[in-house]
Design a protein that fits this description.
The termini are far apart. By secondary structure, this protein is mainly α. The chain is elongated and about 115 Å long. Helix content is 78%, strand content 0%. Its main location: secreted. Residues 1-18 form the signal peptide. Pfam families: UCMA.
Length: 116
């Protein structure tokens, strides 16, 4: 007998809560029809429309800025790698030249020459 009362009370409280929530979720028919109406071409946009457009523009600007920053970073990394490779190649070439022209003296004879 008591479980029936508990079930009945819980069902009634659920119905009351749903009735209160329904009023907050759904809007009146007149508001809904006005909400979906398009404004005329010459009428000024509402504040909400302006805010939405501004948010979209700001988001597009942010995405564009991020994209260009990423492209710039990739290019800078590429250039740095190219410079490092070129530096290493020239260093190796200089080292090979020094090994080929080494005369047994350190520093080599060419740098110890006395100019008269």
């Amino acid at each position: 007998m008591t479980w029936r009362r508990v079930l009945l009370l819980s069902c009634l409280s659920a119905v009351v809560l749903l009735a209160g929530v329904k009023q907050k979720i759904f809007m009146q028919e007149s508001d809904a029809s006005n909400f979906l109406k398009r404004r005329g071409k010459r009428s000024p946009p509402s504040k909400d429309e302006v805010n939405v457009e501004n948010r979209q523009k700001l988001r597009a600007d942010e995405l564009r800025r991020e994209h260009y920053e990423e492209q710039r970073n990739e290019f800078e990394n590429f250039v740095e790698e190219q410079n490092d490779e070129q530096e290493e190649r020239s260093r190796e070439a200089v080292e090979q030249w020094r090994q080929w022209h080494y005369d047994g003296l350190y520093p080599s004879y060419l740098y110890n020459r006395h100019h008269i």
